[in-house]
Amino acid sequence: MAEPLSLDKVQRVANLARLKLSTDELQAMTTQLGRILDYVDRLSELDTEDVAPMAHAVEVSNVFREDVVVDSLPRPEALKNAPKTDGRFFLVPQVIEH
Amino acid sequence: MDYTVIIGLEVHVQLLTKTKLYCGCANLFNPDNPNVQTCPVCLGLPGSLPVLNKRAVELAVRTGLALNLDISQYTKWDRKQYYYPDLPKNYQISQYDLPITHDGWLEIEVNADTGERKRVGIIRAHLEEDAGKNMHDERGRGDSQVDLNRAGTPLLEIVSKTDIRSAAEARKYLEELKLLLLYLGVSDCNMQEGSLRCDANVNLHVHTNDGHNIPTPITEIKNVNSFRNVELAITSEVERQFEEYKRTGKKLGDPGATKETRGFNAATGKTFAQRGKEEAHDYRYFPEPDLCPVTFTEEQIQAVRESLIEFPADRRTRMQAAYQISPYDAAVIVDQQTEFADFYETVAKGCGDGKQAANWMTQDVLREMNDRKLTIGTFPIRPEVLCAILKKINQGDITIKAGRDVFMALLEDASMGTDVIIDPERVDRIIAEKGLAIVKDTGAIEAAIAAAIAKNEKAVADFKSGKQAAVGKLIGEVMKQCKGADPQTVRTMLLETLAKA
Q: The dihedral of CA B247, B249, B252, B258: what is its sign?
């Protein structure tokens, strides 16, 4: 059995996903996520000693597109769903360059 | 106490495809028309699916082979998750544990005098998508603007080993890499447009007096915009790290001394600390479910290998031997790209004098190309015409100086925009019109000398009384009569005649 999921870890994952959780939600998430992880952890009961790791779920490879230009969206269409634009650019709150 | 400099470089190269990596939007630098090259895939709209650009994969393999990298027989893509406004999906489709190419090297010259070379190891080169571009309000107020034209365009990230030992070597590596990429035609390497971007990882191994090797904390210098500035940034960073070590004794792995990101200020010539990200990088890579893996057979890799043209380093070596030219000349010619080098080889073969051809190409042709803002492709004197001039010189029909006059006259023809055809016949005509042919008929020269002596009694007398300079006037007289005569021959013959008189 893997070590139980801590509140801290869930808080960290929430931060990375830009989710703000209340104390109650954090508690509930930790319990629920913990149960999911326990369930998945049952896979480790299997002996996979001689099984090659799988990198992809679909057994298809080499699916390509030819390098041919197709029409892009007109700018108004591209900007349509943005919360804020100036008609040319997407506008976002000031970001600090790293 | 001294130290060894340890440098590794990460280079991002924009590939010269017509379309983006995972969709059919145009891959064009177009900053004046923001957000006109997007679609649901590169905007990260729900329900859209990426499909891999075949050409981008081919260019990655081509570059991989040129960098002596192994091509992975099985490669896949992975999601790298982070939030930034220029990354609409909130993840970048990159490659994590099975990059398309790995384990190679690039050879660079480390000493121009001795020609000493070394191999810089390359860990991997992988294929990933670029982000869009954020523009910030200069005063730090208001919103940031986001242009997603670049989002999803193909990048090859080339990661070197930490084999580079000085700022100068770093620059050499970048120059050689750029030349190779241009030769391969995989990128235009335009740094102003961001087609080639470089991050440098730098630290020192300080050798203490008691025989220990202490690594200093690693710095990543980001987004330096020219090779010269990469060299300057590393030089100043090396000094800064050594001073910092002497002051604090801080070494790699000490608390708070992991990896620092620094920028470079070209105005001060110094690196500066950039605000660290609030949390440590945690990209939570996992295999990209929307893209299928790619496999290569040995036959496919071999086919690409056979389609490759000669690499710059090989070409320099071959040309040096084939045409008996110096390493310097070979480097100057090859550095001018394939078309220039092809031009040179045509001239060298045609006139049978590689050294002479190299002199003309690296001096006269290059100078006039630059002055007249021409490329070798638009240079009006074509190889067969230059060849005709050089042959005339080699056969002793005209002097080198007369050759230059013909060369310049041909360029004048071209710049007049007349319909004169610049061909070998035109060379002959100019030589005839300007009377540039060397007069080999010594009888004509003898006659001219006799006439000059008869006409210039004073000069002859001056010469005989010891005024060496007086002979100049006589030579001038003779040359006026025989324009194509070789001045050196005239001088010798004249002195002989005067001695006998």
A: negative
Residue that has been written with the tokens 């710049």 in this structure: B415
Q: Which domain holds residue B324?
A: 309-434
Phi, psi of B447 (to 5 degrees): -60, -45
Is the Cβ pair B140, A94 closer than 8 Å?
A: yes
From B392, B407, B434, give the residue that closes a domain. B434
Pair (B94, B183) in one structural domain = yes
Domain final residue, candidates B295, B328, B346:
B295
Q: Which one of B16, B35, B220, B261 makes the best mutation probe of the A interface by having the most chain A beta carbons within 10 Å? A: B35
Q: How many cross-chain Cβ pairs, A to B, lie less than 8 Å apart? A: 132
Please indicate whether, in this complex, the C-beta atoms of B295 and A62 are within 8 angstroms of each other.
yes
Reading the block at residue B495, the tokens are: 């002195």
Give counts: helices (H), strands (E), chain B.
Answer: 16, 18
- How remote is the C-alpha of B464 from its chain's centroid? 59
Query: Any idea what the CATH number is for the domain that residue B478 is in?
Result: 1.10.10
Extract the tokens encoding B97.
């544990």
Name which of A18, A90, A93 is nearest B83 (Cβ-Cβ): A18
CB distance from B294 to chain A under 8 Å?
yes
Q: Distance between CA B401 and CA B393 in Å, rounded?
A: 9
pLDDT for A97 equals 53
Same domain flag for B144 and B22: yes
- What's the pLDDT at B451? 86
The domain locations on chain A are: 7-43
**Predicted local confidence at residue A6, as pLDDT:** 92
Is the pLDDT reported for residue A88 higher than 80?
Answer: yes
Cα B79 to Cα B92: distance, rounded to the nearest angstrom: 6
The pLDDT averaged over each successive group of 10 residues in chain B (501 residues) is 95 97 97 97 96 96 95 95 92 97 95 87 98 83 92 98 97 96 93 93 94 93 92 96 93 81 92 68 90 93 86 91 93 91 95 94 95 92 94 89 93 82 89 81 80 85 83 84 77 83 67
CATH topology of domain A7-43: Histone, subunit A (1.10.20)
